[in-house]
Amino acid sequence: MNALYTTYRPRTFEEVVGQKPIVSTLEHAITSKKIGHAYLFCGTRGTGKTTCARLFAKALLCERGLGNLPCGSCEACESIARSAHPDVFELDAASRTGVDNVRAEIIDHIKYAPIQGAFKVYIIDEVHMLTTAAFNALLKTLEEPPAYVVFILCTTDPQKIPATILSRVMRFDFHNLSLEDIRTQLAHVCEKEGFKAESQALTKIASHARGAMRDALALLEQASVYAGGVIREDLVSELLGELSEQSVYASAKALAQGDALSLFSEIDAAVSRGYDLVQLASDLALLLRDVYVVTMAQANAGTRGDASTVAALLKSGAALADLEALARAFRTPELVSKLLLCLSHGMSELKTAKNKRLSFELTCLELLSLVPKLNAAAVAAPAPVSAAAPIPARTTASAPAPAQKAAPVSAPAPAQTQVSAIS
User: What pLDDT, on a 0 to 100 scale, did the predictor assign at position 309?
Assistant: First the structure.
């Protein structure tokens, strides 16, 4: 049995989700027969880079002929989908990084004509993993390949590709898929597979995928097995190891009150239940982000924006009343922004820390050190207004005392003059 992300891999350009500008450009290039010799597909994992590379290869070798979109069902298209076509070469640069691999698998074989179709297509995945010597060996071939050769380079890190390579390819940047695109596709898969799922559960899965369709489909398959029946939101939360919204809110409330013991108690409860502290930090950051939006809305009340605009910007799922309560506790947007910045730095360290609990607790201590200082300043701000009057009086009263003491100090000067006169 194939995985869901393999079963529902797009077989034609019409089935590609969320990459409309790229798909339209490739379709126009195919139908107008304006085929480039080298392409670079960039983007994060699970956004469709290798899938579109295979679809482009299908368009070049489909039995419909050049100038038509691939049918996805002929022998050539089926063999490409199975990675069995003799004229399509899929190379993994992560395991073939050296110059010898490039020479043996590309340069030495590129001079031979295609076996079945009109083109030879080289799909090089994770191309940024090639060494500098391998890139240099590929450079001349990439610049002036035979007319029947098309290169499609795929990478998740285009910054590591030499500029000499980038200048010789046509670049396409694949963006992360939207939450709605992923949720719609998940609902379609559930309908096809006979899964029963709550809408909130699909939304949570789509949110956790962070723009990667492959991750979303893999998680949906795992959730369907775990649920055994209806895929509910609470089951998905358990599967993902997420804390409840109440626990995250309690952590933010303890932070707003400067209550270190309560905050550490929430951390201890999360660890004892086996929850991921990285996820807790991420959820807390998302909640504070929404609190910042609410504090800004309160600060700009009556000047711009409305309730619907604010609601559209909120992403944590917390109730608006809870966010407003936290906004009143934190008082100023400046405090929340400093907390977010500090938490962001702490999350970067937390992901690679050996002792994640200690790392997160140290981050929380830094957060707590910010809260009382700014809150104390806000509380103490009105006090000097009423105390301003007595302060100058005290200063004035103490000023004459040093002046009276200063006179005797200078008195000996005339005495010395008299002594000198007598002598």
Answer: 73
